[in-house]
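Technical note accompanying the year-one report. For the benefit of new consortium partners, we illustrate the data format agreed upon in the data management plan: each record pairs a sequence with a structure-token string. No post-processing was applied to the example shown here.
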Amino acid sequence: RGFSRGLRRDARMLSLYIDGAACEASDGLTIAVRSPRDDAVIGRLADGSAADAERAVGAAQRVKEAGAWARDDGLRVGALRRGAAALRVSRGVLVKLLERLFCCLA
């Protein structure tokens, strides 16, 4: 049916990713993601707060100060390759999502 045809109909929750782990917003708030076609809720996003942003910046600062990310080319290359592999695995779902999104907006 419509925007989410071919995708799972259960609303998916996308978490924040802070300090190497998925987590909920510190205050537990979420944002509904709605289909532009029929306004159905197709997912939820964690609604990060200023406190969550501060936690993320603090985690990034600790990694920077530890130096491994800045010094180790292999670490950065590995992370990029893992990210690219994850996109390749999800490519079919992403293509379906984008096709339906642009079809609905045309």
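Partners are asked to follow this layout when depositing records. Residues 73-105 form the longest helix (33 residues).
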